[in-house]
């Protein structure tokens, strides 16, 4: 079963897609956070896949009120990959994404995600255990939510960035993270992240796939998609969520 909900936030609303397997059973709750491209057809399909595997899923649209998704789409990544167009494409991408860098945007986004937890915990179809899976932008906010809300029982960031290592001490759920070896910026930061997790006695595992880079899971992007890595990450994600949410 699928429904679109307008969730109140301050003096506005933001939309979420809610998918349940149906029937009278209760299911673990799962928040699926989209990439920087917004709540695309790809993320909707991923949310549906999780629902079919027995999760009470909510996929929020966190960017529609920023104007960013109207300025960029995945075609810009082809421009970034092309040496002839790279400089101009990177400039365009930085300008479009500048609003996402503000502390105000970060705080507002985490607040919206906390509302998603509220919603699932109040949902009759949910068992009361909630996890989060996020991709790219969503991976970064999967980390952020894990540091901000101790009601979360599992977090799976795909190629996300843990923005503030000092906040890792606040994490209370296990984390399984995925990266592509060619995603240089994030992979270079992994040793510090692993060290911070270990020093704070956190349950953390990071898996890095060879011959893969950023957005390797996105099967609608032929430039970045890596089938073998994506399929392995999917099975590991399902197993991890099952261990921690059921």
Description:
The structure is a single chain. Helices cover 41% and strands 23% of the residues. By secondary structure, it is an alpha/beta fold. The protein has one domain (2-70, 103-245): 3-Layer(aba) Sandwich (Rossmann fold). The protein has an eight-stranded mixed sheet, sandwiched between helices. Strand 1 and strand 2 (12-19) form a beta hairpin. The mean pLDDT is 91.
In short:
With 246 residues, the protein is of the alpha/beta class. The protein has 9 helices and 8 strands. The protein has helices at 41-52, 68-71, 75-81, 86-97, 103-122, 137-148, 184-188, 190-199, 227-245; strands spanning 2-9, 12-19, 27-33, 56-60, 126-135, 152-158, 175-180, 204-209.
Quickly list its features.
8-stranded mixed β-sheet, 41% helix, 9 helices, 246 residues, Rossmann fold, alpha/beta, 23% strand
What is the percent of helical residues? 40-55%
- Assign the structural class, choosing from mainly alpha, mainly beta, alpha/beta, alpha+beta, or little secondary structure: alpha/beta
**What's the number of structural domains?**
1
Low-confidence stretches: none
CATH class annotation: Alpha Beta
Series of secondary-structure elements, N-terminal to C-terminal: EEEHEHHHHEHEEHHEH
CATH superfamily: Alpha/Beta hydrolase fold, catalytic domain
Number of strands: 8
- What is the correct CATH architecture? 3-Layer(aba) Sandwich
Mean pLDDT: 91
Number of helices: 9
Tell me the Rg in angstroms: 17 Å
Taken as a percent bin, the fraction of beta residues is 15-25%
Shape: globular
Sheet bearing the most strands, described?
Answer: 8 strands, mixed
Euclidean distance between termini CA atoms: 21 Å
Q: Widest sheet: strand order? A: 1-2-4-3-5-6-7-8
CATH fold topology: Rossmann fold
